[in-house]
Amino acid sequence: MSDHTERPAPGAAPDPDAWEQACAEDLAAERARRRAQQGPPPGTAAEELRKLVDAVAEKVSGMQLPLGGGTAQGVVQQVVAQAKAVVEPVIERNPDVFDHLASAGSELLAAYRAAVRGQEARWVRDEPAQRPGKPAGPGEGDGGKGGSERIDLD
């Protein structure tokens, strides 16, 4: 019943899942449209770390080293292979850990931004920093050094 003029047959019971099905169809269509427009969404933190390790390994292995030539290149490739051998099992055993670490990093960044937002606004307006309940005195806020300012996170 996607057309608003359609009516159920007389005497037929309405489908209790019709609304849920219509919403699921709309959501799937919207997700497909966004994927087509924006490309695939990023993977989990573990998948992204694996991609990063692979990209760095590929880049380092492809570098041409002027000193030592083939010997140095062989050592670099061996070090890259060892690093991948160490990282891969950790990623395989603990994929959720990387998702939690990524979330924690985002939260820490948000906390930092919240802590310094007011300070940054004062920097832009070129106002001296003030502690709550205490007026700024001469030289306060720049530590008497003209330019550097203490951020009070209390």
From TrEMBL:
<dbReference type="InterPro" id="IPR035183">
    <property type="entry name" value="DUF5304"/>
</dbReference>
<protein>
    <recommendedName>
        <fullName>DUF5304 domain-containing protein</fullName>
    </recommendedName>
</protein>
<feature type="region of interest" description="Disordered">
    <location>
        <begin position="121"/>
        <end position="154"/>
    </location>
</feature>
<dbReference type="Pfam" id="PF17230">
    <property type="entry name" value="DUF5304"/>
</dbReference>
<feature type="region of interest" description="Disordered">
    <location>
        <begin position="25"/>
        <end position="46"/>
    </location>
</feature>
<feature type="region of interest" description="Disordered">
    <location>
        <begin position="1"/>
        <end position="20"/>
    </location>
</feature>
<feature type="compositionally biased region" description="Gly residues">
    <location>
        <begin position="136"/>
        <end position="146"/>
    </location>
</feature>
